[in-house]
Amino acid sequence: MDRVGLDVVSNLYRFGEAVAGSVEERRSVEIIRGFLEELCDNVEVEFVPVTSWSEQLCTLEVDGYRVRCSAHPPTESVDVESEAVVLSIDDVFRGKLEEVRDRIAVVTGVEDPDDVAEATAILGGLGARAAVYVDRYEAYRRVVVCSYAIPNYVSSSAAIPAVHVPRSALKLIVRGSRLRIYVRARARRGHGMNVLGDLFGSREELIYVSAHHDHWFWGCVDDLVGVAVALGVARDVAGRRMRKGVRIAIFGAEEGLPETLSPFYWAVGSRMHVLRSWRRVGDRIELVLNIDVPYGTPRLAATGLEALGISRYLGLEVDSYGFIYDTFPFAALGVPTITIENFEKVLSSGIYHSTLDDIAALDAATYRGSLETAIRILRLVDRFDAARFADLGLLEAAQQLVNRGAIQSIAMRGVERCLSYGVSKEVLRVVNSAIFGYAIDRSFLTRPGVREIGGVVPWGPDTVEVPTGMDIKGWRRAYEKALSILNSIYFACRGS
What we know:
Blueprint: H1 3-13, H2 23-37, E1 42-62, E2 65-68, E3 70-71, E4 78-88, H3 89-94, E5 104-108, H4 115-125, E6 130-134, E7 162-165, H5 169-175, E8 178-199, E9 206-212, H6 220-240, E10 245-251, H7 268-281, E11 285-291, E12 299-303, H8 305-313, E13 318-320, H9 328-331, E14 337-341, H10 343-348, H11 364-383, H12 390-400, H13 406-419, H14 425-435, E15 436-441, E16 453-456, E17 463-465, E18 471-472, H15 474-495
Parallel strand pairs: 4-5, 5-6, 6-7, 9-10, 9-11, 11-14, 12-13
Antiparallel strand pairs: 1-2, 1-8, 3-7, 4-8, 8-10, 12-14, 15-16, 15-17, 17-18
């Protein structure tokens, strides 16, 4: 990592956990804003209504012995004591829970931290008084827990108090007969912040380069390194100038929480930004280039035929599709997006949303590789219109959908026919928003480790569309979804 990138991470790291709406966030924003003001033609700060959450104390008491814990937001202050029952995450999802009512459930074997959210909803529905999750590492962790598990817009809250302990705490827990959980935490209305820096170009097109500054615990990989890369891009652009304008968008509240909590609790800052600014800049956006959880060898998450084509042209592999990132609100409106990431490695290494995401997780090669990849993509899109790469993207999409099923074949035939009449940005926006989306298998409430899937026509029978929560149950509903895609594409082509 170069000296400037290291200084950025170090200066933000010293504030510790920086949740949207907190004092630590305000201090971080001042540093980011000062950096951008030295490089950009215009800098502004957007305020985002949020529910700000903070933990002051979390302890678990077992027969008079106390161990530290971490509360899962939005758990608030609580003092609960009860008999404990130890069970595995598989037991929770399989419904082997006869003894949890009016007890504290101690859950082991959690491989995917986000299973904590679904498990807490299940346990709360069955009358457990609280949940304690034992980590597979010697680490503390935070996952937002809601009373609903499907990531939609329904108003929600914490189902029951939920806390996390490192794996060494299990030995103490199993020796005791009763547990006491004491949490002092607070949720309040506040404002998070987005920081926007514009580097003007000679043309009206606009390329977004984004990352998020809010984080749980130390947040080095998620996402202080991403912030450093985005600011490194700003330095590169300021030193050479480009034909197209570049907007450096350092979003807040990516980890949450919206003013009214719902199971779709993340990407709050970017969603609010798109909502407010779309009419002013939406037609000008050429590409959104996001950096989030870069770790090890950079990989790409992409949405939009143009983004798939750009990735293929540069020989960069796309392995996911970005529902969990700040690109989501742009992608939902058909804007091509690319995220430089390695979420799967962050998840498998135990870093995700944990105290392991500290300064020791930093890797100079990751920073350099991510910065070089971002600059390559940026220069290509500055030289050529993104729509030029749509045909390559269509080829990539078609290869991904080989033998996927009838619904995917129907949708792609419609896309191919539409684009054969010519390609415009307006048509591509409609096509992208119609065929790129997100779903989750309906089994996610009955087995752990089931994640959202995204990409080209991800819907099928027995899936749930996210974040809307629409249940696509059976082939009839799946074909109805395919027909709605074709109708959108048909009208877009006729309008062109």
